[in-house]
Design brief:
By secondary structure, the protein is an alpha+beta fold. The chain contains 19 helices and 13 strands.
């Protein structure tokens, strides 16, 4: 146990008597290591002097966007400076009251894009079902026409089907949605309370307005979905329905295929492609369904990625529980204290980092992003074509540095060659731009491995100017950060070096300041906090980051539940869309398959033909779906740029997942559907008039 003599004195100031009327839990603003306890008491208005300042909390009966204008008017009326007015923005945000115009614009525009995508996907799903249904019943509709059914009656029959579906599905959908949200809140309430520091439970509140909007949007979706099929149904004549000329119109030119198709895929592939061209209407519906599913999945996953990215940029990025800090180079005794801390029961991870701040001139041509914009606007920041950046050096112990180097795919041995000073440069930073009122993630300079980075020390006297110490050799550039390290503001370089590099620089300039931090993670942070407090030296600063880290992690967990639940829902809709469209399309082609079998197509050739059709479906859908998705994703990125700024990048992993999933789902749907018609009797199938 390490102890230091502390000089502490209690002074008697005044005496007051209080009556204890209740006991409460520790408030969130009181830290566990506080020297005393929070006491709340009543403030008598009569005891307040005329010019005495007090803090007042105002609770509004109803919260709306006029709140800010009301507060400004109230402050002006009573002579209160707006600098002393603080809004509970975290609480107001949950009521949809946001003063930041950029954030409000971002939320509304994103909501509009997502709602539009969902409506288009829903319309596509319902439209395909009705379109195929009308095609399937074309002979039946023709028969109705032959006995006197008018266009209006045939059209209304389709609308009536849509109305029945709406009467059943809309109430079930609303009930299911409310029940789903309620179940989610039950699961998340504990996490939300801890993450947001509140004691209230989130409950589902159903407003008549939201129910009405849901009903109107659903009804509009069903109407749009049934309108085109209803028009088509109204135009079906008795002769056309009996002859089946509406959906299949053959000409030699339309079903002609390239010789390359037969060369690559054989006769089965050529027949499969001709089948698709012959059944052009069903083929287009299926491809359209696939394209919508691709766009739905990619845009929603990109939306969720953007939300997670914004969440990460908003949180503090703390990846440790406890920080112990001292503003000097640790002595042997200090290192013993640190070692004792890391050996405490429950400590799972720790890292010792020594830091120093120097200056590094960067060629103006290598500046990127917001830093380049800042320098372009202020020419005084550049001298002789060089921008003098602040360089924050973080020195890691040998074991910690080897581990960090390995995490970014580098061998650690090259960093311990004393013939040069190796360094890993963090080229991407995250900061809050107060002028533009948004969070920014940017790559601020273009540095390559092998570049030299001179380090300068600025003396305490301005007249001393800058003194060149040594040059670092950039061994690697990365976005990853070791535990305990965060990037600083614009124009500040974050550089990771082995600890010996800092000592080497200190030998050149003894006045160079260095400070030391021990960062600790624990299985039981609160217990470890008390144990560390017992053994730390008095000159060591002690920071409990556990609660902030816990809030960040729980916030991201809550976000992930909603995000991935949304992805799962959209994925289910997309798969249902594909299966419904393809299985119904295959069912309508029973006679076609029976004809092919009747002229000698073997089961093996039939399977090959179906497989090639699946490939053609997938290729055509991807050819349209991926470019459309990229366009929508970029539009979403531009909307998010109102509040968060980071580089647009394509979600290549999701695109690869989509490519793989499309062929798997289409192939599975085709095999599942054809399995049902494979055992059909050829003669009986050919005799069926309604197929």
């Amino acid at each position: 146990m390490f102890t230091d003599e502390l000089s502490e004195e209690l002074r008697y100031m005044q005496e007051k008597s209080f009556k204890v009327v209740g006991i409460m839990e520790r408030p969130t603003w009181e830290r566990p290591w506080s020297p005393g306890y929070t006491v709340l008491t009543y403030l008598d208005d009569s005891s307040i002097a005329e010019l005495e300042n007090v803090n007042a909390t105002v609770v509004m009966k109803s919260v709306n966007r006029n709140l800010y204008n009301y507060v400004e008017a109230l402050a002006k009326e009573h002579g209160i400076s707006m600098d002393s007015v603080v809004y509970h923005n975290e609480l107001l945000r949950y009521s949809g009251v946001i003063r930041n115009d950029g954030m409000r614009s971002t939320l509304f525009n994103l909501a509009a894009i997502i709602i539009a995508i969902i409506i288009v996907g829903s319309v596509a799903l319902i439209f395909n079902a009705f379109a195929i249904s009308v095609t399937e019943r074309s002979r039946h509709l023709g028969m109705l026409a032959s006995v006197g059914a008018t266009k209006r009656q045939k059209r209304n029959s389709v609308f009536f089907e849509g109305a029945i579906i709406g009467l059943i599905s809309i109430p079930l959908g609303i009930i299911s949605g409310i029940a789903g949200i309620a179940a989610t809140f039950v699961f998340l309430n504990t996490l939300i309370q801890e993450a947001l520091g509140v004691t209230q439970n989130l409950v589902v509140t159903v407003s008549p307005g939201s129910i009405l909007v849901a009903i109107l949007v659903s009804a509009l979706t069903i109407f749009i979905s049934t309108y085109m099929p209803a028009r088509k149904a109204s135009k079906i004549t008795a002769i056309d329905a009996i002859r089946q000329t509406q959906d299949i119109k053959l000409t030699g030119k339309k079903i002609k295929t390239s010789r390359l198709v037969r060369f690559l895929f054989g006769m089965e592939g050529e027949i499969g492609l001709k089948n698709l061209k012959r059944n052009k209407r069903k083929y287009q519906i299926t491809v359209f369904s696939l394209v919508i599913s691709i766009v739905l999945f990619l845009t929603v996953t990109y939306f969720t990625y953007s939300i997670e990215k914004a969440g990460e940029m908003t949180t503090e990025g703390i990846d440790y529980d406890i920080q112990i800090h001292m503003s000097t180079i640790p002595s042997e005794e200090d290192l013993e204290i640190f070692r004792a801390m890391t050996e405490l029961e429950g400590v799972t991870e720790h890292i010792l980092i020594q830091e120093a701040q120097l200056h590094a001139p960067i060629d103006e041509s290598k500046l990127r992003g917001a830093l380049k914009e800042m320098v372009d606007e202020n020419e005084d920041l550049v001298e002789d074509g060089m921008y003098r950046a602040i360089a924050n050096l973080h020195g890691l112990t040998e074991d910690a540095f080897r581990e960090f180097a390995a995490s970014i795919g580098l061998e650690g041995e090259q960093f311990f060659d004393t013939t040069h000073l190796p360094a890993i440069v963090i080229d991407t930073i995250t900061y809050y731009d107060w002028e533009k009122d948004k969070r920014v993630q940017t790559k601020q300079l273009e540095v390559d491995a092998g570049d030299n980075l001179p380090l300068y020390f600025r003396g305490w006297e301005i007249s001393e100017g800058y003194q060149l110490l040594k040059e670092l050799e950039v061994t690697a550039v990365t976005e990853e950060l070791p535990m305990g390290v965060n990037t600083s503001g614009l124009g500040v370089l974050t550089i990771i070096v082995p600890q010996w590099v800092l000592y080497d620089l200190a030998e050149v300039e003894e006045r160079m300041s260095m400070w030391t931090g021990l960062y600790v993670s624990s299985e039981d942070p609160m217990a470890t906090i008390y144990e560390i407090d017992e053994i730390k030296a008095s000159y060591m600063s002690f920071f409990n980051r556990y609660e902030a880290r816990q809030r960040d992690e729980q916030f991201m967990l809550i976000l992930s539940v909603f995000v991935y639940g949304f992805i799962a829902l959209i994925s289910a809709i997309s798969v249902a869309n594909i299966f419904n469209t393809i299985s119904t399309s295959i069912t309508l082609r029973k006679r076609e398959f029976a004809m092919l079998k009747s002229v000698g197509m073997t089961p093996k050739s039939f399977r090959k033909m179906i497989n090639y059709e699946s490939i053609f479906y997938g290729l055509k859908a991807l050819l349209y779906g991926i470019p459309i998705s990229i366009g929508v994703m970029y539009a979403m990125h531009r909307v998010i740029m109102n509040s968060f700024s980071y580089t647009f990048s394509l979600p290549w992993i999701n695109i690869l997942i989509v490519i793989f999933a499309v062929f798997v789902i289409v192939g599975s749907a085709m095999l599942y559907s054809t399995a049902k018609v494979r055992k059909e009797n050829i003669i009986e199938t050919l005799k069926q008039e309604n197929i």
